[in-house]
Amino acid sequence: MDLDTPWRELVAARQALAYRMFGGLCIEGVPLVQIASSFGTPAYVYGAGTIRARLADLLGAFREQGLTPAVRYAVKANDHLAILSLLRAGGAGADVTSAGEMARALAAGIMPEAIVFSGVGKRRCEIEMALGHGIGQINAESAEELAVLSAIAVSMGKFAPVALRVNPDVTAGGHDKISTGRAGDKFGIAFDEAAALYRYASTLPGIAPVGFSTHIGSQIFSPSAFEAAYSRVVNLIDRLRGEGAVISRLDLGGGFGIPYDSGPAFPMPAYAAMVRRVAGDRCLDLIVEPGRWLVGPAGVLLTGVTLVKLGVGRKIVILDAGMNDLIRPALYGALHGIVPVGMVASSKPVTITEVVGPVCESSDRFAAACPLPEMAAGDLVAILDAGAYGAVMSSNYNGRLRAAEVLVDGRGMTLIRKRQELSELMRDDIVPLGERAPA
Ligand SMILES: *Cc1c(COP(=O)(O)O)cnc(C)c1O
Q1: What are the backbone angles phi and psi of residue 11, rounded to the nearest 5°?
Q2: What phi and psi values does residue 308 have, to the nearest 5 degrees?
């Protein structure tokens, strides 16, 4: 198929998507038009085959290097039970940040030993839940937290298997708000204090220290940023082992980038080779915690055009999806590709269009200048790479209903989350007796 338009180029670069002569844009062979007519818009649509293939590619890149790291999928990227279940079936465990995510991972059949509990502010009840279930690893972020963990574990007659999350003080991450490994970030233990803290952890009666973890940020493309962090942590491990410390695990974190444009992919083979070079001969059980990389490219936000309005000097396409459905553009200035879904003649002229949602905020804008064919009310577009940090970050802001979610698998499509209804919107509101409207 010819690549004469920007949207064809974007689609050609994505494994899950293709334009078909009849049917328009398809995800894993299923026309998105058909999904919209069955389930309405806006809807998140995920391709199961793409998620499975990406997990297999990740494991394959490491296998090439003779490594078999444990994959602990970062549930916060997309916490849907169907997604967790298919990743579990592919051999992945979970990295969770709350009781809610832990409950989801367990409900999806992920073994407690295959769950890592991370997070900068774990509550007592959450720690008790983790220890009660026998969660495989708790990543601790401070001396204060170690003391709390130990006390809770002792009171339950258990040992908390703890990795210390080290902040290696490297700058990485696609955006200020998704960098987590700089000295000034709230995450982790300062690198210079990590050795002392590991020795301290070994003295606590409720702690079974297992190793170190690090996670330097998200949307990172260069293996050398990771290498800088891992080298520091591996040096630390060597030093502590030299003193006789027992260290069995290195949790490498996640943060592997995905191109939201037509840019190059994250070089997973080079990353795996770097991991082998830096840590491969250290007799360490390795863990990776990918989130976005596994599920981001597998999903789109399918949305309809509500209205096309002529603004000052530009066309404005108003969608039925808004920032409450996909907040990344408003929150991080993220740019997602936006492509037409219906059949579009390749000769159609490209118009530069502003694309916005209906929410009453100026930041509810998906693109300031997006190349699209002439659009009209009722047309469909797909917002690309919305499988990660999409539905999970959605809200009811502006009284808007949570979107439907659909999973495409082997030519079939399944509604995996029904669109919220108006009655559900108010279900949990409690109006004091004296304020109730007369019946
Ligand atoms: C967010 C997070 C991840 C996953 O990040 P991605 O960029 O989605 O890969 C992994 N580990 C930890 C500790 C995280 O906070």
Answers
A1: -70, -40
A2: -115, 125
CATH, domain range 7-47+296-425: 2.40.37.10
Smallest Cα–Cα separation from 99: which of 117, 73, 78? 117
Rounded Cα gap, residues 399 and 146, in angstroms: 42
What pTM was estimated for this model as a whole? 0.95
Note whether 59 and 73 are within 8 A (CB). no
Q: Is the pLDDT of residue 305 over 50?
A: yes
Which residues are within 8 A (CB) of 353 and not within 5 positions of it... i.e. 6 or more apart?
314, 315, 316, 317, 367, 369, 370, 371, 372, 375
Q: Do domains 7-47+296-425 and 48-291 have the same CATH topology?
A: no
For ligand 1, mutation pick of 215, 328, 332 (most atoms within 8 Å of CB): 215
Per the annotation, the verdict on 360 as an active-site residue is yes
SS3 of 153, please?
helix
How far apart (Å, rounded) are the C-alpha atoms in residues 21 and 19? Answer: 7
Bridge-based pairing state of the strands 380-383 and 299-311: antiparallel
**Domain chopping of the chain, boundaries:** 7-47+296-425, 48-291
| Residue 439 confidence class, pLDDT cut points 50, 70, 90 | confident
pLDDT in tens, 195-234: 999 999 999 999 999 999 999 999 999 999 999 999 999 9
Fold of the 48-291 domain: TIM Barrel (3.20.20)
Q: Is 215 in the pocket of ligand 1 (CB under 6 A)?
A: yes
Q: Is 210 in the pocket of ligand 1 (CB under 6 A)?
A: no
* 8-state DSSP, 232: H
> From the centroid of its chain, how far is CA 359?
24
Q: Report the run of H or E that residue 45 belongs to, with start and end.
A: strand 43-47
How many Å separate Cα 435 from the centre of its chain?
42
